[in-house]
Amino acid sequence: MGLLFSAQKREHNIAIFDIGSGSVGGAIVSIPQNKDGVPTILKSARTDIKFQQNINPSFDSFMNEMIVALGKTASLLYQTKIGAPDEIYCVVASPWYLSETRTIKMSREKSFILTKRLATDLIQKEVSSLTELYKNKYDNSENLPEVIEQHTMAVSLNGYNVNDPLGRRCKLLEMNMVISLVPQLCTKKIKEELFKTFHHTNINFSSFTLDTYLAVRDKYITQDSYLLLDISGEITDVGIVTKGILKSVISFPFGRKTLYQQICSKLKIELRDALEIFKLYNDGTISSELRKKVEPIFKSIESSWDQAFKQCIKTLPRTLVLPNVIFLTADNDINNWFTNVLRKEEYVQSVVPDNKCVVITLKAPDFFNACQVKDEKPDPFLMIETIAIMRKIFK
User: Fold this and answer.
1) Is 278 part of a structural domain of the chain?
2) 162 lies in the same domain as 198
3) Residue 78, CA atoms < 13 Å, CB-side half-sphere
4) pTM of the full structure
């Protein structure tokens, strides 16, 4: 049920690559012998994807810049001389993947037993149906998305959630699952680039939203409904979790780079100056004269992000109620700023129950009990992915 990896009997090293829209991170991780152990990030590296200040690049040129960053990160890991990884795990964020949430239902007048074969057949039928749907949308086979992961989040029998459903009898079956897809050209280029450094090491793919869901679900067990918000370079990804089930994954084109592009455009300055002004503003060390000038601009940018968020939310089914707990992942330089935006009454707060939400920023120290780090600067994105991948390996 879900995405399965073969359990390992010995401690071994894997490589994890965090492939986002603003940067590509990488880590060599030591996986313990059994599920009771704790994984250790031995070395990590991160390379920014080239920032294009005034140009809206095509998907192909943007992908090429991502591949360049991936190659540099792989090379940095190779130079650590830790040794070749046994396997590679690539975790992709938007715009490199898309996720579809699916609910499989089956009912019969007479009771039936849910066998592993029946469950597998139902899941495969759903995956095949989704694949066929995308085949009809794309003429170019290289642009055709391929399934990289399928994960069963919950199974209910006769209306009740069951943790161990196989072998049980029921009349009504419901399975909630998420299926993630990536364009074939993208997976092909990623593999080709990594093979230059790590030759023909086996490569697995997964999505950052699903990995975050798995890590958050295991750590924050008292929370069963929440938003997963990942604000990366070009994109904001939104995952909606209701009663422990990832119900929807949506995104909109506004991220860290969008923020800096708007600062550059509105103030007519270069990127390096935008980075400095934003840092001064965020740290509270900006002069009163400059604050007076830039404050209306930052307020306008806040409003632009909020409008894009609310427009994105409108695409959800009306029956889906937004939770009032938000788990946020974002780069260090924008983390506090976006946390403050989320907490302002006129923005996201206005569309959640009781007009009040709790914002929890996911930072490295939150995961030290589940992931050890030997680097001086722990990377929360790589830590989240390490925890999720460890969980899949031993499932």
Assistant:
1) yes
2) no
3) 13
4) 0.90
Same domain, 170 and 203: no
Residue 3 has what pLDDT? 44
Kindly report the CATH number assigned to the domain that includes residue 382. Answer: 3.30.420.40
How many of the other CB atoms lie within 10 Å of CB of 77? Answer: 23
What integer pLDDT is reported at residue 53 of this predicted model?
A: 56
Total number of domains constituting the chain: 3
Quote the domain boundaries for residue 165. 98-118+133-180
Are 51 and 195 within one domain? yes
Taking the chain (395 residues) in consecutive chunks of 10 residues, what is each chunk's mean pLDDT? 48 94 96 92 94 68 94 96 94 92 94 95 92 74 82 94 94 95 94 94 96 94 93 92 92 93 93 94 92 94 94 86 92 93 88 87 94 91 96 87
Q: What pLDDT sits at residue 368?
A: 94
| CA-wise closest residue to 94 among 66, 73, 69 | 66
